[in-house]
Amino acid sequence: MPPTYQPIADKALTDELYGGATYNEGWVGWEGKDGEFVIDLGEEMIVETVEADFLHKLGAWIFLPRSVSCSVSTDNLNYKFVEKITIEENREGSVKYVRIPLKMKEPGKVRYIKLYIESVGLCPPWHYGVGYPGWFFLDEVNVY
Question: Minimal CA–CA distance to 141: which of 20, 66, 38?
Answer without folding.
Answer: 38
